[in-house]
Amino acid sequence: MKTLTALPIHMRTHARKLALSLFSLSLFVVALQIMKTGARPLEPLIHEHLQVHSLWDGLGFGWITASAILSGSPVAAIAVTLYDGRAISRFAAFGMINGSRIGAAFMVLLVGYMYSLRGERSRDGIGVGLLAALVAQSVHFPALLIGSVLLRLGMFERLPVEQMEGVTSLMDRALDPLLDLLTRLLPDVALFPLGVLIMLFCFRLFDRALPEVTLENTRFSSENGFLSNPLLMFALGFGITFLTLSVSVSLGLLVPLTAKQIVNREQVVPYIMGAGISTFADTFVAAVILQDAKTIALVTVAILTITLISMTYILVAFRAYERALLRFTDLLMADRWALRVYLAAFVLIPFTLILT
Fold this sequence. Notes:
The protein is mostly helical. 80% of the residues lie in helices and 0% in strands.
């Protein structure tokens, strides 16, 4: 029987990445359970000091937090566990989930700016970052309003979660000794921050385990019919993000690809929309692991409303929608003061939502 060191280099690399993926997934489950246990003691702190009560509070909190850590997935998972522990309301959690995706676009803006420092078609790199932010805002704001109506109607709250009872109860039994030990050793308010730190470490490990994804060596070009089809580009963005479970990877690819003219700005809008939907895969998994019908319904409503808005743009008025985004992007890039005002608003709006 061959040992791991006897395998070819590429097979050893794949084996290490697979092992790292399985370990990070297990760590993700552990982090969720620790956060779930530590969520309830945080309710007085959140209500009295953070003031995260309403839909708009949650939107601002998720937005600014995701911008600060340059990632939306951990913030969405935090929202799910806080709601599962009833530390925040379902509307605050729903706002936080949507805000996490708007704030995550700041990462693409930052990558575009850093790429521009290399002097390689800097306008295109920054333009992709602006497009990612504008697409997220144009999709999530209407989805937030429609989703809040569906939540008031109690949609999808009777989903059959009983089928997961055997799996989740097995996980609970396996993790009970660890949770009991932590609750004895640490104060209640320390459990949730510990779970957050483990989750952030977990996502970092998972990013290292991701396969190398690149489109540079394909036969695609900016004139290729495949890349000019909105539905196919939507599917490509959805697929790459679903396979990597990282919107940072799938959207970060767009900056160098656009700068090298492998794709152009007109082709990336539906790609960004597809990536914005499949990035909820890990959030949905987190909700299922927690096995709460209302939590699963919350994430389901988020996914369905974002899909509804995205497909409406693509199927009903895509060219008009795309032209509006591109014109606004060009306006921002042509005027430094307009760009500064937009970036300042990107930071100040979430703070305003929290404080009002």
